[in-house]
Design goal:
The complex is a heterodimer of chains A (186) and B (516). Chain A has helices at 3-6, 9-30, 34-54, 58-82, 84-87, 98-117, 132-140, 144-173, 178-185. Chain A has 186 residues and is mainly α. Chain B has a domain at 292-516. Chain B has a three-stranded mixed sheet. In chain B, a hairpin with a 4-residue loop joins strand 2 (70-72) and strand 3 (77-79). The chains are: A mainly alpha (186), B mainly alpha (516).
Chain lengths: 186, 516
């Protein structure tokens, strides 16, 4: 592979975004404080949004920013901040299994890099165009079933979350007097 | 073997053949809405709704079954004899687990006079949703659907594993399951993205054609191995088995019984469809002298069997022991895939049927005994042969069958698996068959520990233990099925042959010919 073909504005952006994503992902995994981990997630999610945009997936990129960066990340931060026990928790992911894990990870990385660089990937050149209309169309035509299935997955995840969360509320309610118990359970 | 779907149907045409899933969805909503609208939540009512919807789904499956292969929703899922076989298997599993959970204190931890009984409705709604997920896993002919259905089953499994109230082990099981599941799903998605990169499609048969035409062997092997992380996690094969003992031990016993049979069978369905539908057995190889798949799968199978059996020896908790035993059984089942022959793959289906009855039977005994107040350690089972004659007898039958001793169903299942390997020949296959037979001998040792405790050790107390009638009926049914499966063996083999006909149309094969 020729180096001059490698450095175009597109690839330059790609490598920058990839670096941001990877470095923040490492931050998520290795930060000693869970709050720092949560903040590092900002870079990861934002970097992925950038990658989507670079690939011409405008709608997915914007949704990534709106939902993940704007919604889920804020939710995670609130969860961390409001759970006082969790906020003070010192995590240490650094030393676990490093002697075995690191060589295996390096070997796997080398193998994947070799595999990916020696493969003649079939490429398609597509003009950048808004994808929203096509996405909407595909949700109601060829991808109707996955679309509906995802809603089932989300519904049942909601029910499950409720099962677990309501139980926790009841648990706390047990120690308090009867009237406030009823109020807690609702 | 590119999984050519003869009839492709669009969204509206597909609904007719999608009826079982739709019926179950209606059942789920009915359970949830009934808990809100119709008075006090009631476990029996939820069970009734679940049972009726399972029964109608079974009828709908059988009514629209005509032996033809159809691609539904533009080829995202398939409705063919293979899917129908697994659908019936899953409906039977869910119904048995549903009945077992009805009386189980473990699943809902029933406490008279408390609000506690409320969650019953959700339990059956979650069970039905898992059933839909398993249906779709068996039917998926597209990587997108494979991933989504696998995730559906996984998310439901996390919730079910953590269902036991105020139980640290149950919560721990759920959390470990989530973390392992998340990692496995991520690795599998990476593998799937590589497959998409090679072929430009998520459809299994398109991937087959693209892969058969391309010469990029290394990346294909990497992709398949990474995908195996997801499938291997679902069937609990080495090295993705670590969650299994903790989850099986911590989860409520009816849920454990369900995990050991349902999602595992669904994982094998997905695996069979993946290897038959998307990955050619022979690929253009610059790297390997032969096709790499038998070796990759063979190594996983051998490691899974051996680790499962060796680790089971040291266990003192009976659910943990059965968890390792189920890991070992995933290894035996993988042997059927290694030979890449019609016999081997049919043997997987046959073994799954026998495994359903003997494994559920063993778990049902554990469930009935823990409901009657007995502990879950092997030491608690001392003298059970005197204290609870019938459950101990059922346990003995199931354990002999799991070992693979002759008159029991497990023997026939294992015979077909090993015979397929030996019939195919080649040093790798014969070696794998020998490892499998040696492992069966090892498994006899730890199964016999339970038998010895039940029949030869002195009980801690002489007080008889009475199993609830519904558990007794359930256990009896499992024992009869395990003992009497040979009566229905010929129709069963015929059904399995018909189910696999789209990939292996020839009915007569080496094993069946040798048996006649």
């Amino acid at each position: 592979m020729d180096l001059s073909t490698l450095i175009t504005p597109g690839t330059l952006f790609f490598f920058m975004l990839a670096a941001v994503t990877l470095v923040s992902a490492l931050g998520v995994a290795l930060a000693p404080n869970i709050l720092y981990s949560a903040f590092s997630l900002l870079g990861t999610l934002g970097g992925v949004a950038g990658l989507y945009l670079l690939l011409g997936a405008d709608f997915v990129g914007i949704v990534q920013v709106l939902v993940y960066v704007g919604g889920i990340l804020v939710l995670i931060l609130f969860a961390v901040l409001l759970t006082n026990k969790l906020g003070e928790l010192k995590l240490n992911n650094l030393s676990t299994g490093l002697m075995v894990g690191a060589p295996a990870a390096v070997a796997l990385l080398a193998l994947i890099v070799k595999g990916v660089t020696t493969t003649a990937w079939p490429l398609t050149e597509e003009a950048t165009a808004p994808t929203t209309a096509r996405l909407g169309d595909s949700f109601l035509r060829e991808h109707l079933l996955p679309f509906e299935l995802v809603s089932l997955v989300l519904l049942m995840a909601l029910v499950g979350a409720m099962v677990i969360a309501r139980r926790a509320a009841k648990e706390e309610g047990r120690s308090v007097p009867e009237e406030s118990h009823d109020r807690l359970v609702g | 073997m590119g999984g050519d779907l003869t009839i492709a149907l669009d969204n509206v045409q597909s609904l007719r053949y999608f009826a079982p899933e739709l019926i179950l969805s209606v059942g789920i909503l009915a359970i949830l809405v009934a808990d809100l609208v119709v008075g006090k939540p009631d476990r029996k009512r939820s069970f009734g709704v679940a049972a009726v919807s399972l029964a109608i789904a079974l009828v709908a499956t059988l009514a629209t079954m005509d032996g033809r292969a159809r691609g539904l929703f533009g080829g995202l899922i398939a409705r063919d004899p293979f899917t129908d076989f697994f659908k019936v298997l899953f409906i039977v599993t869910s119904a048995l687990v549903g009945v077992a959970a009805l009386r189980s204190r473990d699943a809902i931890e029933y406490r008279p006079g408390e609000l506690q009984d409320k969650e019953s409705g959700e339990f059956y709604a979650l069970l039905l949703t898992s059933t839909i997920g398993m249906f779709l896993m068996a039917a998926a002919t597209d990587l997108l659907m494979a991933f989504l259905s696998l995730e559906l089953v996984s998310i439901l499994s996390y919730i079910l594993a953590g269902f036991k109230r105020r139980d640290r082990k149950s919560s721990e099981a759920s959390l470990k399951y989530v973390i392992y599941g998340g990692v496995a799903a991520g690795v599998m998605l990476y593998g799937m993205s590589l497959l998409y990169g090679i072929s430009g499609s998520t459809n299994l048969s398109t991937i087959y054609q693209a892969v058969a035409a391309s010469r990029s062997t290394l990346v294909l092997v990497i992709a398949v191995v990474l995908c195996m992380a997801g499938f291997g996690y679902k069937i609990a094969s080495v090295p993705f088995h670590m969650w299994c003992p903790d989850v099986y031990e911590g989860a409520p016993t009816p849920v454990t019984a369900f995990f050991a049979v349902g999602p595992k069978a669904a994982g094998f369905a997905l695996l069979l469809r993946f290897f038959n539908g998307a990955i050619p057995e022979q690929i253009h190889t610059d790297l390997f002298a032969n096709s790499p798949w038998p070796l990759v799968l063979g190594l996983i199978a051998a490691a899974t069997m051996t680790l499962g059996n060796l680790a089971a020896i040291g266990q003192s908790n009976i659910k943990r022991l059965l968890a390792y035993s189920s890991i070992a059984h995933a290894g035996y089942l993988l042997l059927g895939l290694c030979s890449f022959s019609a016999d081997g793959q049919r043997a997987i289906l046959l073994y799954l049927v026998t495994y359903l009855f003997m494994n559920l039977g063993a778990f049902l005994v554990v469930l009935a005994m823990s409901d009657a107040g007995l502990g879950e350690e092997i030491a608690d089972y001392r003298g059970l042969g005197m204290r609870a004659k019938f459950p101990a007898l059922v346990m003995a039958i199931c354990l002999f069958s799991l070992t693979g001793l002759p008159p029991f169903a497990g023997f026939f299942g294992k015979f077909y698996l090993f015979a397929a390997l030996i019939a195919k020949g080649g040093s790798l296959n014969v070696a794998l068959a020998l490892i499998g037979i040696l492992n069966s001998a090892v498994s006899l040792y730890y199964y016999a520990r339970i038998l010895r405790a039940m029949y030869f050790d002195k009980p801690a107390s002489e007080a008889p233990i009475v199993a609830a009638p519904i558990h007794a009926w359930n256990m009896g049914a499992m024992a009869v099925a395990t003992l009497g499966m040979w009566i229905a063996w010929t129709p069963l083999v015929g059904w399995v042959n018909a189910s696999m006909a789209q990939w292996y149309p020839r009915a007569q094969t080496i094993v069946t010919a040798a048996l006649r």
